[in-house]
Write a structure and sequence with these properties.
alpha+beta, three-stranded mixed β-sheet, 5 helices
């Protein structure tokens, strides 16, 4: 049995979308994509990088997350102005946002049907519709 080098999978992932595999991109990609799909903030990823002894600024983490999103490796989920999560599951799906805990949970894109979506402005087309359903405990909503 041959053993893969630690960055083989993330290296292939970056190359497949045309991103140059810099040291920082590789390290952040390894933190993001090794394991289960998840939702993470830039600040949380920066904290994980610090714990893993990856020397990277918060600005570089933000830039890298936006590059990964533009390349289709991540989806950005904006839950309110100035508050975004980055989702490692880039497939078609939507989210429950738990207001009390600030966490997200995926649900199938097929679970939502849209009627009456407006025509996009001239010269544009709808590329995707994202649904974030905000939930709170029943005692909070009263």
């Amino acid at each position: 049995m041959t053993q893969q080098r630690p960055f083989t999978d993330v290296l292939a992932r970056l190359k497949s979308v045309g991103l140059r595999p810099t040291r920082q991109r590789l390290a952040l990609a390894k933190l993001l994509f090794d394991g289960e799909d998840r939702h993470i903030t830039a600040e949380a990823l920066h904290g994980e990088a610090q714990t893993a002894k990856v020397r990277v600024s918060l600005a570089t983490v933000y830039n890298t997350l936006h590059q990964f999103t533009a390349a289709g490796l991540l989806r950005e989920v904006v839950v309110e102005a100035g508050r975004s999560y980055f989702d490692t599951n880039a497939t078609d799906h939507h989210h429950f946002f738990f207001e009390e805990s600030g966490t997200l949970q995926d649900f199938s894109g097929d679970a939502v049907s849209l009627h009456g979506v407006p025509e996009p402005p001239a010269g544009t087309e709808i590329s995707r519709v994202d649904v974030v359903v905000r939930v709170c405990s029943e005692t909070e909503s009263r």
